[in-house]
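Notes, Module 5: Reading structure tokens.

Key idea: the token line is not a picture. It is a compressed description, and you learn to read it the same way you learned to read a sequence, by spotting repeated patterns. We will look at two proteins. The first is printed below with its tokens.
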Amino acid sequence: MNLPRLQLIIVGGGLSGCLAALALAERRPDLSFLLVEQDKRFGGNHVWSFFDSDVAEEDRWLVELLAARRWPDHEVQFPRRSRRIGIGYNSVKSAGLDRLMRTRLRPDQYRLGSGVVELGPNHIILEDGERIEASGVIDARGPGRAGGLDLAWQKFVGLTYRCRRPHGRERPVIMDARVDQESGYRFVYTLPFSDTELMVEDTYYSTSPALDVPLIRQQLESYVRQQDWQQPEIIEEETGVLPVLLGGELVKLWPASEPAVARLGLRGGFFHPTTGYSLPDAVRNAALLTRQQDFSTSALHRLYRVRADELWESRRFYQLLNRMLFRAAEPTERYRVLEHFYRLPEPLIARFYAGRLTALDKLRIVSGRPPVPVGRALAAMRGIRA
């Protein structure tokens, strides 16, 4: 029996691939598509977070499907500045995403446990040799090769705890930088998912992607022991390494030597240059996909390459700030750059994380007495290694 040719194949069941498929299932029931993921569950083992202001009003229908845990505000804590910020914060667990995908997609719309060994403009070949063809193909398989880009890294180990009694945390602390800074900018990140359950991550902004999980886990457990939490039990563990962009050109992620296939997520450069977070871009790209009429590979490649170019150019200012963080400040003093940033008004902070800074915002961020040596700051702005 000859099966009808698919209109679209999405390869990769991480966040960006899942949101694209979910959006199509909800808004484009006329479209025949297949989501292919090599693991046996969607989303891996992650927690994705975003601010209310990261997602445009017209795209909120998609994040509402995710049933994210939401808090109306959050905190930051530094040696000389602690602040409660009235911007809503949201988090989504991968287990919840996995359940949602299995509920919202029909069984014929996805394949789990199916590794892809070949990806072309109009086909994929699975590990078992099966060939699947479609008019369009999207590559959402996570980070690809990034040779030629100037990168640093945000890396972390996170532990989720269940406490015997209420832990007393009411809101997220997205940065507690009152910890040892010997290894560079370090902070602890805490999300209270319920009265007795909370996730705690030890996070580092580092020039190396290497992650010493046993050491960081030990330091994290030491931090937890200092809190007034009643004999917490570890129930989950998460690790991650996210790119922080210091410089380079987008063509390194979309090389002409590889098939002209649309890319989503980190593979296509769709991430915040300073935090490495990808959910806001994934939401926007998924919503954009539902509005298309031409799902051919060439049309989709053109659509998302143009989108990636626009974002890359509009966010070059973040590369400048990142260079200042990593190259103008001594490792033990890098926290001062973020401490200085959090003097700014809440609407500007919201626009910073949403990637929508105005010209006046940029001027305000770099105004005033810099928290790093002036000469090194100017060298970092020019892209010179100090």
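Here is the second protein, with the sequence above and the tokens below, as before.
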Amino acid sequence: MIVIASVIGVVGARGVLRAADERTDDVERIEGLQSVLAEVPDEDDETIEYPAENYLLVGSDSRENADPTSDDSAVIGDTSDVGGQRADTIMILRQERNGGAALMSLPRDLWVEVAGTGRSNRINSAFNDGPEQLAATVTQSLGIPVHHYVEVDFQGFKNIIDDLGGVEVCVGFAARDVNSGLSLNPGCQDLDGLQALAFARSRYYEEWDGTDWRLDPRADLGRIERQQLFMRAAVDGALRRLRSSPFGSGDVIEAVVDSVRIDDRLDPIKAGEALRQAAEEGLRTYSLPVVNDTVGDASVLRLGDGSEILLAYFRGDGPAPAEFETGSTVPDEAAAPASGAGL
């Protein structure tokens, strides 16, 4: 959503915004979320110490729109290989009333009580019965109010990145993931939609140390770090491209409209304008403290020391905890591409 906001919020050209406004009527809306979404804080309520709006961002692994002719079709598969949908990526985007923005990733293996079941499971399993259950689980188990919901599937993600012109990512070593189809050279390179998805999905990330391939042992936590790196790079890249060619955003708007699903009450144009300043001032990313655990034969993650401090911030009950910040975008036109630190 923060990248989408960069497209429709930073442009500032009336003609483009008017065209976007006409197209947003075609965005797919998800009904049934009203009962689990929190009320948006009143802009005039000065009693709220840390006013903000939270967006629940979900990357679905649905293969429903998968392109069988794509180069990654053998890796992604189709509905005959993987039916239904799961939450492949879960993030909370906090848009501050003063214009700042923060992003926190929720590990797929985080062990929580799933809303409406009376049982605990990995948090991504809450998506199996739809976005309503996932949003309710985030609120009930973590105490984070969810005001808006945005979802994109694999194909939609690739389309948006391709129409942005790719995203520049820098890595210190050659990297690969034979499971996701990732293959990177050392240094900086533009990732198209196919490689961007492989990078964002990678759970078996390997780096070449000059002698052998070394597997990142952090699994989903390493993946979260790379996803946040990618998001920062995508925001920086989108801002630079749209500033230099605002009227070239039409194709990106088309891709966004055709690729996302949102809650019934979200106004994409208003959201984009509200997030414009956030994107330009810099997006801060945070890592949720977790610890490894085992439930039965399953490896899971539980909330670790300090997690309550970070959760309090995203609940709106406390200030931003600097100790859990993992990075931020560069809030100017000379922004440098995000780079990886290696394993």
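Summary for the second protein:
- Residues 2-328 form a domain with the Aminopeptidase fold (CATH 3.40.630.190).
- DSSP finds ten helices and 18 strands in the chain.
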